[in-house]
Amino acid sequence: MHRRILTCLASLAVLAWGLGTARADNESRTWKLSLESGAEYDSNLHRVEVLDGEVAGVDAGPLMRAAARYKLSERPDKRSQLRVDLRGGGKLFAVPEGQSENLAVIFADLNYQRRLGTSQAVWGARGNYFDAIDLRPFGDGIRPTSGRSFRTSEIGTFLTLPRDATHRLSLQAGVRDFVYKPDSDYSWRGPLVGLRYASTLWIGDPDSEEDAASIDLRASYQVGLRSYEGAAFRNACAPGNMPTPDCFVPTEESRADLNHSVIVEGVYTGKQIYSLLYGAEVVDSNSYGQASLRQRVEAGFTSALFADVFLTARAIVRLNTFLDPLLLARDLQNQNFVSIEDENRNSLSLHFARDLTRHWGAEARMAVYSNEFATQELRFRRQTAYLGLLYRFEEASRSRL
Amino acid sequence: MPAILIHCFAAFQLMAAPGAATDSAQKVVRVAQASPQSSGLTAAGRHSNGAAARLASAQKREASLVRQMADLRRTYNKQLGEVDKLKKSRASWRRDRKLREQKARSQKTALALKSADAQLRAQRVLVTRERKATARAVERELALSPSVVRKRFLAGVLKNARRGLTAKPKKISMPDLEFDAFADPEELMEQIALIERAEAKLAQEEVSLERRESHYSHMAALRSKRDRAEELVAFDNDNVRRSTGRTGNGNSRQAGDDQASGDASGGGGALNEAPGAPPEAGNESGPSFEASSVVLSDVVDSGTQDALRRAHRSSSPRTKAEAAKRAHGQVQERLKRLRASKARIKEHLRRHSK
Questions:
Q1: CATH, residue A270
Q2: Domain count, chain A
Q3: Statement: the pTM of the whole predicted model exceeds 0.80
Q4: What is the spatial distance between Cα A80 and Cα B323, in angstroms, rounded to a whole number?
Q5: Tens-place pLDDT, residues B105-138
Q6: ipTM for the complex?
Q7: Interval A343-357: pLDDT, tens
Q8: CB contacts, 8 Å: A129 with chain B
Q9: Residues 17-56 of A with CB under 8 A from B
Q10: Is any Cβ of chain A less than 8 angstroms from the Cβ of B5?
Q11: Domain that holds residue A349
């Protein structure tokens, strides 16, 4: 599946390049390159949960991060648009405890869209690929973990029906594939369909208003079927009994989940940006212990501070409700189940950025993660601090279409 | 934060009045039927609400007539098509009878169309009158310093009312800047007057462009910093990539949302760039860059005119800021030349009078 998607993405990239070179005299094209690098400190690099008051097993250490991004936006003609987004990056820990957490990431996204006839309706196709790869250039180090690498890819199509410039409704359909590398039982694939609505409720006019602002609203609903490679479990214990690992009995059926997700987001852009997002995800599973309701509220704020320094603050609160009993391992070294669905945490992050020159920028980020509204038995705390530089280069060429 | 509430409330009010968001005559406008603080309104407030309601009603009738006209036109075209078809068919008594019937039907439709057209014209006159009356009433109420919420609401009503009244933008014609030392002083005075007139209009445009440049640059900077903050955590593996969070792969805009702006440059303005936005999606609100491209057609070069037109269509604040900056620079340059020319002529006149 991944190979097929990769081949498809590569073919599209070649096609894009071909289109670009063939019609270079009659197009508008913009490409951007950005490179970033910096140092970070992670206070809980294995992201482990511990009993209240315990610190054993929590390792901290510095790391280096680097990433590159290339974005291309091109219009082969007036009615169509092609976008390519390629990214690669990685992080390397400087302490032996963190060697098993070294990670590289590659990401590719291709998007082609075309206006249909004389209408404002747009048809498009897209594909993306994301791969998180475990890096072990210096071995496993001390206290290695199994890593959390995975890859995911998606191909799909969409149709957008704008009522006018300020209201857009998109219908989407596609197929998604997910591979969890440490344990293939948690890998899945399946179709998905979705509906998105985007609207600009208000656009201020700076000619007539001192504090002209805009208000945008987005909402989306997506439903996808996920067919897992692993088996579905059933509850072998009597109803009402305390759940134990013996209650989880594998069946001959494969696990299959129906995943619904809803997101609503409002963004106010004026002298500052305020945003509020609510997301809910319902997992309806045929496997005992996997049904859940996850909710997420995210509040964001961006503002210019002083001396051209910009601050973006983001607070995320997650509330997970497991519809079946959930087992929690207390012995972290002998953890015998996977909790990949639980890695989400509440967080508060502050991002400071300042442009130094036209191409160079500096940035700092501080983040605190905790599990306040999730697992009650165990405690999770993690702080990160990042300081880095960013280089951007952009070139645009336009012809009169 | 109070500003957000105010904007949200005003936006909600405008949502209740779709005519405030579109200038199409076919849209039904329902304004001022649920205005803020309607219980404690002053006489001026009641007057503007009444005027706005009358305007909404007139617009509704206009939209209905437009629909009726469209239906009739469709029917008429169909009937004409039938007549043509019959004319091309083999001659016979039966064909002639049918042709006569079809012609009679089409004539009847033509008469109905004519009558509907007359009604529509009359209705448009009425709508224009109501627009003027609403604009006057709202302006009167605005002069009485209403509350901030009410002011916002009235701004929306006023915008809707003025939309159909706004005259088409006219380009600023540039006077001859050549200095003729042998011209009569009267001619030179006339030239100075023309220069001053153009200068005043250009200065007005300059202020407007400067304001837009500053506004959209700030907006673009905010959005790019916000997007960057999200981009930075995209590789952090913090988000659950198999589930919620934002759609796409962890980063809201990395995979799903910024792919389809109306702007080919695509930078900065991810927020308004919803998926599947038409490549030439228009932005009908906010300042009219298109009008500026007409007004400044004698002042800025063709590339800048294109940039202004693109800015009108684009939802990216960065594209708008760049277009405003480019036009602003050229307007400044032209103003400098106008002023220099005026100074030269004045200097000549001063010396001549001595």
A1: 2.40.160.40
A2: 1
A3: no
A4: 22
A5: 999 999 999 999 999 999 988 988 888 888 888 8
A6: 0.84
A7: 557 889 999 999 999
A8: none
A9: 28-30, 32, 36
A10: no
A11: 2-397
